[in-house]
Amino acid sequence: MGLFSFTFVSMRIDIITLLPELLESPFSASIVKRARESKKVRIHLHDLREYGENKYRQVDDYPYGGGAGMVMMIGPIDRCIEDLKKERNYDEIIYMSPDGERLNQKIANECSLKGNILILCGHYKGVDQRVRDHLITREISIGDFVLSGGELAAAVFCDSIIRLIPGVLGDESSALSDTFQDNLLAPPVYTRPAEYKGWNVPEILSSGNTPAIEDWRMEKALERTQKLRPDLLP
Question: Per-residue b/e over 2-36, b at no fewer than 16 CB within 10 Å?
Fold first, then answer.
């Protein structure tokens, strides 16, 4: 059984991990917590060691051909995935890996529409290549760097898609104006007070002229994107 369960949801996420305790906190606060409580998403954590070999619940072994580090074995992973697939079909079986496709807003938007997602968190030198060749449908990276394990990457990925599920955010239009939607960085935002230490909020934002404000925001979004991330522009 996973750690979190509900009777009905619009999305279910199963995560296979060696460190389920590492994921309990990220999924028990803020927007993800509210999404779980409102039954918009159900998250189950599965300890891979429950499928390990022998009395030591072994899940890793030395790599063929020698070399430093250990490799996660195919047997425990295959048994865990097979068990989970007996209960439901998965739209994606995702392996969090630094050499996967780079997570971006387009991928987050796409995955937020899925019903059932299974995520495998790697450790050590990674998983037996046969897992990637035969059991995984998609590999996703959160950046060109290596973490101690896939749990934190899985938490980032889950947060990026859960917030897009209809009804999760208080104002659903908020997600539509996020950075990277429409390949633009978000424009500057301000709140009260209108003046602080001589630093003023642009007058246009308090003008009440909605069309002019939207034009200003688009102009600033284009300016910021051109300056900071010109690679996003055609």
Answer: bbbeeeebbbbbbbbbbbbebbeebbeeeebebbb
Confidence at residue 171, expressed as pLDDT on a 0 to 100 scale: 63
Domains in the chain with CATH codes? 11-162 (3.40.1280.10), 177-232 (1.10.1270.20)
Report, as an integer, the average pLDDT of 202-228. 96
Cβ atoms of 162 and 31 closer than 8 Å = yes
For a pLDDT cut of 70, what percent of the chain falls above it?
A: 92
Give the pair of three-digit tokens for residue 190.
Answer: 């301000």
Tokens of residue 148, six digits: 């101690």
Picking from 208, 204, 174, 210, the residue whose alpha carbon sits closest to that of residue 190 is 204
Residue 178's pLDDT band (cuts 50, 70, 90): low
> DSSP code of 83?
H
pLDDT at residue 8, rounded to an integer: 42
Task: State the alpha helices, DSSP H only, in 60-189.
Answer: 74-85, 105-111, 129-134, 151-162, 173-176
Burial of 107 (0-12, 13-18, 19+ CB in 10 A): middle
**Average pLDDT rounded to a whole number, residues 68-93:** 98
In the numeric block, the tokens 């200003």 are attached to 216
